[in-house]
Amino acid sequence: MREFNEFDRPDISLFEVRKSLPCKRQPYWMFLAHCRHVGYSKRESRPARWMARYRTKDKKYRERQLGSADDPAFTYAKAVLAAREWFAKPENRAIAANEYPVGPCENLRVCPIGDIYTIGHALHEYVEWKRISGTRNAFLICLSLINYHIIPTLSHIPLSEFTGAHYRVFAKRVLETPPKRGGRPIGPRRSISQLNSDELRRRKASLNTLVSILRCAVELAWENGHTDNERAWRCLRRVPNVERPRLRFLLRDECRALLAHCREDVHHLILGALYTGCRSLELIRLRVEDVARDGYGVYVGPSKNYKARFVYLPDEGMAYLLQYCRGRRGSEPLFPRKDGKHWPYRHYRHVFRAALDRAGLAKDFTFHGLRHTYASQLVQSGMPLSEVAAQLGHADASTVIKTYGHLAPQIREAEIRYRFSPLDVANVRLAEEQAPKLEKLRRSLHGPDWRSYAVLPDEGSWPRSNFFRGDPELVALCRSAESPPRKKLARGQEPDSSTTA
Fold it and tell me: Where are the domains of the chain?
């Protein structure tokens, strides 16, 4: 009999799956929608039953038996119909929480109507264009940002009346709104003055993304002849921000601990991420036939940027994948679930988090952090950043430099020491005489933990200079949140640690 654990959500619509399920006290539940489930109860010495349940507004569940699951005439489809009839009863609808579809939202949460062309109309046209022009992943992320941040604040404003004052109110609201992370509860709004520099940096990065979306939507409306006013898109300006290096990744011992504490199918998925550096969606879409298809590695089809690439593998990675693919059909998924099917979108996350807990690793580490682990290890080992970018599928090395450049100071140091042409013979001899002393000094400057080596102190998220011409009130508000007031010094007084910002 096939084994199921607490993380499995079997497909109870299939007779073969229901037959193989072990008996247990609680039913096996399957989503019809969020807050609406159909279930299959299989207990010792009792007939199997179809079940239904819904979630109430006070976050509790109401259950009901629908009928015998052993009756061939009472199929899964009829059980679903019976469940929906029960959900639709007035006494149940009055206390039930609102249902919403399983999976990501694929439409705007507003339906713009009327003869006055609003920001909502412009966003609707932009979303429909993005639906056919962008990759699915990029489209869903863009749509989620629009629904969460832009629609509640700006969708009702006529495009011809949109000004910098509207943008200032919108920017302040975005900076003070907590990020939305899946279905987790959303925290309260916090004023800009309550945010630390790293939180403010992340909020400003989100604001800049939203500004780019708004500009594209408004410019598209202008190009389509819905407005002759250029002010709407000219007043949308990005705020200055500083990119922060990626510091969250795993050491090799931590990788081994994670692999030792996860179930088998996720074990292979994690190994694939650590050997290839692929994104989770790319790993899920890989097939057996992609291994060694065009060379010593794995062919990765177009995903985020429409561009396919070939990822070269180390010897151990190549040997592992060839062994793992032996005897399997080329059309099969390379990293399937335990039941042999493709992983549904993001369904691996709860299993991955459970493995993190068992391995004693940071709870906020994500599966995407394995991609950063892969890149960080290559950069630290001295691989040219342009080659790292090619492995990751970036268009150029600029993203790698901004994200992982802080891990390569030793590389730059070694290149300078090796490639600098001798200039003064006397100083060359002096360096040879003091070689042990210089080596000791060089080693003393390297931090004990290479993940934190050469990380610059936090200087806030504003660059030293910029050409930003945004609203002065918004700039002053953000700057005051990052820079505590300086104490005035008497003439001739030297600053100390308590008076420097």
Answer: 15-93, 119-234, 252-410
